[in-house]
Amino acid sequence: MNVATPNITAIGGSAPGSIRRPIRQLDAAAANRIAAGEVVERPAAAIKELVENALDAEARRVAIAYADGGKTLLRVTDDGTGIPPEELALALSRHATSKIDGTDLTDIRSFGFRGEALPSLGAVGRLTLTSRWAGAAEAARLEVRGEVIGATRPAALARGTVVELAGLFSTTPARLRFLRSDRAEAQAIGEVVRRLAMAAPGVGFTLTDVTEPDAPRELLRLDPEPGDLFDALPGRLRAILGADFAENALRVEAEREGLGLAGFAALPTFSRGAAVGQYLFVNGRAVRDKLLVGALRAAYADVLARDRHPVAALFLICEPEAVDVNVHPAKAEVRFRDPGLVRGLIIGALKQALAGAGHRGATTTGAGVLGAFRPGPAPAWQPGRAMPTRLSRAALGFAEELLGPDGWSGRVEPPRPAELADGAPAADHPLGVARAQLHATYIVAQTANGIVIVDQHAAHERLVYERLKAARATSRVPGQLLLIPEIVELDAAARAALLDEAAELQALGLVVEPFGGGALCLRETPAILGAVDGRALLADVADALIEGAGRGLAARIDAVISRVSCHGSIRAGRRMSGPEMDALLREMEATPLSGQCNHGRPTYVELDLADIERLFGRR
């Protein structure tokens, strides 16, 4: 078969190396445009560079404005220290900076230090720089048009600096074709500003869309938060990430060998379907670092499903010599001198914070339940008929199952009164006292301030999982010898995965041996599980081992424990007595992470009495 060779000359010119050109020095204009391609790939990147300059100038307030997604206008105004008039032109030359002297490139204590941002912006648009040096009698202005730097002129400005860039990429129109829609570019600008505002909670920010000059739209206004990082951060995060995050976030604080970690991480049940709620900072610099993201993911590994992502704002603080911030032109990535120490600090601090949350679940789960009960438009009322209330289908179904026309409908299993604890729930029982079991699946408990609905299988799955992990950490998990060993047929991959980890599985109380052909002999199972379906158990464990083939042994064993615990849990459909349900509630209260199952789903939802009263119009 003959395959035609592409005509490289016809497609894009001469083949590589076919024409010998002499080596020559590029002129300043070309060098600046190349640098701009590395540093300023879109309007949001330009905003990042300019705002970081403002923060380095000790600004207390920063105002950002843009038009048409930043394509026609970008403007950053700050009240920082400003630039002396005699240095304005120098600020627009490459590698000119006041932030380092070049003698020690490891001691970086500022955001920008390469001296590329302003000349790069001047190379791809019409740049105007206006600044008033602190204590100067007047401000000065300088314009750059087509690589030509104009003369410095007097200007009116109370203090600080204003950088305005009109016609981004007007000198390189081909770059404009690679920009996205105005809306998408505006969203990227907003995201960059929010990240910068998180890193500097003591600085005020405004973001304004001036596409319509006569009707500007203020999109964001953040006042400076008082105090140090930890004092200022909660208010700033509430303003940016919302009240739901603030109500469901755990404080994280740790220090190890000169590294510090501070910030807030959300409960596992307050997770997202994509990694868009992860804000990571190193010495105040927003980064997207694989090591940090991986450590965050690992810390939540046994409390989140694989398709869910944690929400967190974490600040790593270290000496400048411990991190290289110069490995990426836009400084979006970093390299640590001791990555293992960084990873261990993050995972340990997050696990400790999550364990300290106990049985606590996200407040938003209760809000979701209330949404199902929210009244809709009611049909017209007629005299002589009861006033109707139109509830959602989910609410009607719940009501029908709970109360029929003659009291209990028969499809709900109310425990006998003698089985229930007497009196009101004790203050030290936050999950309350069991009052009913619905569909042999859900426990309804009365708390001091409302009710709790517990998924009995999900809750017990977490409890068994934590017991197995604790037993494994201290010694071998006790096993129970099967009276009659179970012979299980599995495919070759599953069989090989189980036999390869037979020693580790034995430490978990699961003993398997080859039995010839494609069969395995199951001789022992973890005692905590009781009677189990051996084939289903081994198939699940094999799946966990195969799925985690690229991960470390500890992570794979945790996945195995998670699968094993599911088989030892109270199943949906099993009726429970009052004492059994209360015992489950008490163990949940005493077990870390019991607010979510091994897959990150909530194990219970809580409804305040005030919310319930609002449903019935009592408030």
N- and C-termini, Cα separation: 81 Å
- Unreliable stretches (pLDDT < 50, length at least 5) are 8-15, 377-421
Percentage of helical residues? Answer: 25-40%
- Tell the overall outline: elongated
Number of strands: 24
Structure class: alpha+beta
Question: How many helical stretches?
Answer: 20
> Please, what is the average pLDDT?
80
Strand content of the residues, in percent? 15-25%
Q: Layout of helices and strands, plus pairs?
A:
Blueprint: H1 8-12, H2 28-39, H3 43-56, E1 61-67, E2 73-78, H4 88-91, H5 117-124, E3 126-132, E4 139-145, E5 148-149, E6 153-155, E7 160-166, H6 173-176, H7 182-199, E8 204-209, E9 217-222, H8 229-241, H9 243-247, E10 249-256, E11 259-266, E12 278-282, E13 285-287, H10 290-299, E14 312-317, E15 323-324, E16 335-336, H11 339-356, H12 363-373, H13 393-402, E17 412-413, E18 433-438, E19 442-446, E20 450-455, H14 456-474, E21 479-489, H15 492-500, H16 502-507, E22 511-514, E23 519-526, H17 534-547, H18 553-567, H19 578-590, E24 604-608, H20 609-615
What do you see in this structure?
The chain is α+β, with helices and mostly antiparallel strands and 619 residues long. It contains 20 helices and 24 strands. Strands 1, 2, 3, 4, 5, 6, 7, 8 and 9 form a 9-stranded mixed sheet that branches. Strands 10-11-14-12-13 form a 5-stranded mixed sheet, with helices on both faces. Strands 17-18-19-20-24 form a 5-stranded antiparallel sheet. β8 and β9 form a beta hairpin. α3 (43-56) runs parallel beside α7 (182-199) and α14 (456-474) packs across α19. The model is unreliable at 8-15 and 377-421 (pLDDT under 50).
